[in-house]
């Protein structure tokens, strides 16, 4: 057994080279000095096999349910033989197929996968094609055709392989910059802002999927017991989970570096995590920007936010690195470096493994061997699941990491030729030996729908720390015994397995493991002819989630309207569904209502939850004043553009929306250029849309129709008065020195004209309806909609208010929703998922269903007022700043059109706006 003991070291006395596949095993055995007497069946084998399991594999196969049996696994019947059980032959097979990477000290044993020589031979051409495809990918081909992208995660660990020097420099410079940043943080050169003497002590990493799993795995596997900075993760939009992480940080929030990771920069869960963390910072009186780090694609929403808000640092994610293979970019490396993990060793391990995976001899190529095993075990159609069992606590998250890497890459509906193939490979697992007390029972004896991957770590403890807890046996020996025992016992019962063995869990071996599986996934994807680098299915789920939220807004609008009647009109679920024009969505509406009712959302559901038909719902709180307040706040922003107001604005919106986020109509980006009637037209249009369509676009809880009218006096005054209260507001329209028409907001519904001394005389009676201009019937394709948005944007920046109004109205049709903004230095920054189409399509269904008729010719319609103001120098300077903010907001939204300009902005002060309310106090 001398050769076996040598397995534990990289300078192994075991010489697998001798057993290369090129040499016939029989002749090797004949001349090799190893001479071990094999009984026909080893004692150990006997022990593992109960009587039932000794039956030939063919018989076992008959017991497998038809849909899981080998006859369904995509392999022709002739290729199947039972698993080798003769110990001598098995040993030969082991030696024959064992792969060793000497420098890495990594072994791959696929002998317990039952592929035959004929199978390997038949697969050879496919493998050669797959390996060629991988070579082309390495050289910069568009390996992700759907997205027209290169796939370059392999260049990250060997930048010299990048297809051009620009990419090489990008990689090298980023690595250098992140190393320097991490060094400066760890050494205390970069300090937490509130503690000039102190150090950052914690990292809070916000991200999801590939923007979380890699950093999590690396931290769990490699972080020292006392890292320079400890790490926590927010990887979901679960409020309780987020609260828990923030609570655990406690006062250490002040010394927490928050790393926000999102390749796209617009993933909702990550956006929510960021907003929640920013709120915690505000509440603690901390300045988030000074502790925030963004890792994202250049010019993404997150990138622009971080840039404009002046976050502490920003690192790029590259277009050609996918989320699930991004762990060796700044995504995984920055947090690793901050924890004191040797990131250069991770890269070195991966690079060495990549090199091995480039060989065109399948037997010598570990990734190809894995792909071969997967193909055989799952029939090339995913008929068996991959159970990953690392026998080492620190590798616990490897199975979770692989789950995304493998399933998001291989789980595809169509192949590259457009055939429906529904490919995939299911991955699950936890860790051994813990799982022996959970699900190994089923693996051994139950449904045979899996193969296992054991991850074995030879070194139990650092040298000099081990001890024998019973004579001749250490704790680690037990772990070893459990692994080997399980492997044998499963095999004896015809359960196939792969074993990957590493010496120790080190940066190098972790890098190698990741690289091994990344490449195996790529090769396997080529074998089954699918694109491993896109994820169209996930997008569908995201879109569906957006539709649920859009439906929730409509439900709220309907309930709000009914609940503001006197007396309140509680609605049954059927009534809510009918009024939402969504009878087919009644179950979803029920769930929405139950969720809101359970969360103190002012929504009261009477009846029994278990009996949905009995439920009647209403909203217990009206928000009339808030709407009014919002209108005024928005107007204040639009016409003053003053820094003070920017600062107040989030606060105001927070009050208005009743949510913790800062909300404002997206049209805000138009508003500074439309300080007058058109601004109100926008607001009115939104309200009108809500009223007509019974949806809730933009301003939560709107339930009244406001109409816009104008008077012809010299001074314009706005009158708004809530029925049953004495409040009424008067604001002034700026006098431009030229012609200023009186403008008035005429309020219908529960509102009436203000009466009293301040009322201008005469109050116009004619009412314009901003909704009249909404005459588009929605068309059916996304492209058409986006074209319309573009054409609307062409009207921006025109000094002719009417044209701006036209733009506003076109946009109203397509993007009638609000977004979140944060404010830095008086500049509002969009901080949500702002992509036009993402915002648009949740509402699309309902708008299209209903359509909007042309009511342009309505007699009541007033022509738009034209206000041309000559800006003072001060205003002009301010206007430039605001213009820049708007331009950036547009850029962030991915709109390359000219942004609106402030050139026609009139002067106005926020003091005027809050004439009656007084300034809000925080
Ligand atoms: O890094 P992002 O763009 O926030 O995406 C996070 C994750 O979401 C996905 O796109 C799937 O939804 C993953 O591929 C990705 O890892």
TrEMBL record:
Protein biosynthesis listed as a keyword: no
Enzyme Commission identifier(s): 5.3.1.9
One of the record's GO molecular function terms: carbohydrate derivative binding
Any one Gene Ontology cellular component term annotated for this protein: cytosol
Highest rank taxon of the organism: Eukaryota
InterPro entries registered for this protein in UniProt: G6P_Isomerase, Phosphoglucose_isomerase_CS, SIS_dom_sf, SIS_PGI_1, SIS_PGI_2
PROSITE patterns found in the cross-reference section: P_GLUCOSE_ISOMERASE_2, P_GLUCOSE_ISOMERASE_3
Record pathway: Carbohydrate degradation; glycolysis; D-glyceraldehyde 3-phosphate and glycerone phosphate from D-glucose: step 2/4
UniProt-listed GO biological process terms: gluconeogenesis; glucose 6-phosphate metabolic process; glycolytic process
Chloroplast recorded as keyword: no
UniProt keyword terms in alphabetical order: Gluconeogenesis, Glycolysis, Isomerase
Catalytic activity: alpha-D-glucose 6-phosphate = beta-D-fructose 6-phosphate
Family: Belongs to the GPI family.
Name this protein carries in UniProt: Glucose-6-phosphate isomerase
Source organism: Camellia sinensis var. sinensis
Organism lineage string: Eukaryota, Viridiplantae, Streptophyta, Embryophyta, Tracheophyta
